[in-house]
Amino acid sequence: MFFFQPQTDANICATHKVKSLQLKLTAIALDAFLIEGLIKLVVMVAMPVGATIPLIPSWLTLFHTENTGIAFSAGASLPMWVLSTLTGLLLLGMTLYVYHRLVLKSPLQVTSMALLLAGGWNNWLDRTLTGAVTDYIAVAQFPVFNCSDVFISVGCTLLLIDTLLPEKFTQAEPLETTETAPPYLDHETQTVLCASDVAKRVNASTAQSNERL
Description:
By secondary structure, the protein is an alpha+beta fold. The chain folds into 2 domains: about 10-170, no CATH class; about 180-210, no CATH class. It is built from 6 helices and 6 strands, in the order βαββααβααββα.
């Protein structure tokens, strides 16, 4: 075939943009995951379960406790392997969706999904390895939580904002349209062909084929 449909500049730009946003998502998620993992490790090594360190009297305290359930100890009565399996499958499905199905469009969306993945996977790994999630932040009378819980809450909030705000406020830089992209390219000469040239070549090729028959 002497001509083919090329990959347009707009399509190349769109592909690079998606990959760039995925790299940013991965970087944010890994940073948050590692920071939270380090904090939990310090808490587990330096503070016995039940130990407290007041930071702001009557308001903020470091309190090392273990949560065998999910959020606010929900599901604590279920076997650990059941919770670990269910949450692991949910996180795996979410991760595959984010990287293979979801079209990332804005920095707000990237940040929200990165925080959700980081918080979810960190708590899952903690529960799977130790049998419980390490919580260490106590605010007034609020149930004790950790930074992974904060990541998940903030991620959900940002995702809600990204969904509710008009697209013009959350959309990244617009991609080029394909209207100005060259329609066909000569494979041999690497020259752009207009529609009339393509039609002439098709007719000539068809005529030659008919003569041979």
